[in-house]
C-alpha cells in the first residue's frame, strides 16, 4: 500500500499562474485559494498542514485572510518553510513577521504553530534537527514515510531566484535526504537559517509562490519564461498529483 510519503511516479505538471490587478486583489485571491486548500484537506483528514515563508509574504497573506469567517483556525498546523535562527521576538524572525500580520489576529492555537527551539540558537544544526523532529511527530503516523506531504506551502521569491532559504549555487540545492537543513552562509541576511529541502517542497500537494510589485518583474519573467535556467524557484517541481501555482499582480507581470 502506498504511504503518504511514497515517491509519486508521474512527472511534474506545468505551473498555474493567477494574476490580479493589484496587491489588494492578490490578497483576496490568495485567501480564497488557501481556504479552498483548507477545505479539501479537511475532507480527508483532521488537520490542514501548511508551511509559510517570511519576507513580504506574511503581510499579503494576512491582509484578507484575517477577516474571513470560514477559516477553521483550530485545525491549522503551521510550520515555517524557512526560518532565520534568531530569537522569536527578533525583527528578523519569520515567526514574528507572521505573528504580526496573521497569528496574533486570529484564534490559531499557539501549540499548532511550530517554532524553532530558541534554546539551541548557537547550534543551527541542532535547531534544524529539532525542527525536523517536530515535523516527524506531526506527519508520521503508523506508516514510515520518506517525505512529509504538506497540504500547502506558501513561498516568496528573491531577486536572485531563491526561495525558502535555497540560494543559487548553494550546496543545499543538492540536498536530497533530509527534511530540514541549515545554512550559515545565506547571501541574504541574517546568514544563519534553517530551510525545508527540495524533496519536501516537491512532495507537497500544492506549492504557491507569491510575487507582487514592480521589484519582482525581472525575476518573475525569468522564472516563468526560462524554467530551464535552473533558478532555485524553478527547481520546485511538485510531483503529480501536486501542483505549483504562482500568484502575481499587474505590477510584477508588466
Ligand atoms: O526568510 C526569508 O528570507 C524568506 O523566506 C525568503 O525566501 C523570502 O521569501 C524571499 O527572499 C522573498 O522575500 P521578499 O518577499 O521580502 O522579497
TrEMBL record:
Its EC number is 3.1.1.31. It comes from the Eukaryota. GO terms for molecular function: 6-phosphogluconolactonase activity. It is an enzyme of class 3 (hydrolase). SUPFAM superfamilies: NagB/RpiA/CoA transferase-like (SSF100950). Residues 22-246 form the Glucosamine/galactosamine-6-phosphate isomerase domain. Pfam families: Glucosamine_iso. It catalyses: 6-phospho-D-glucono-1,5-lactone + H2O = 6-phospho-D-gluconate + H(+). Transmembrane segments: none annotated. Pathway: Carbohydrate degradation; pentose phosphate pathway; D-ribulose 5-phosphate from D-glucose 6-phosphate (oxidative stage): step 2/3. Gene3D superfamilies: 3.40.50.1360. GO terms for biological process: carbohydrate metabolic process; pentose-phosphate shunt. Keywords: Hydrolase. Hydrolysis of 6-phosphogluconolactone to 6-phosphogluconate. Belongs to the glucosamine/galactosamine-6-phosphate isomerase family. 6-phosphogluconolactonase subfamily. This is 6-phosphogluconolactonase. It comes from Leucosporidium creatinivorum.
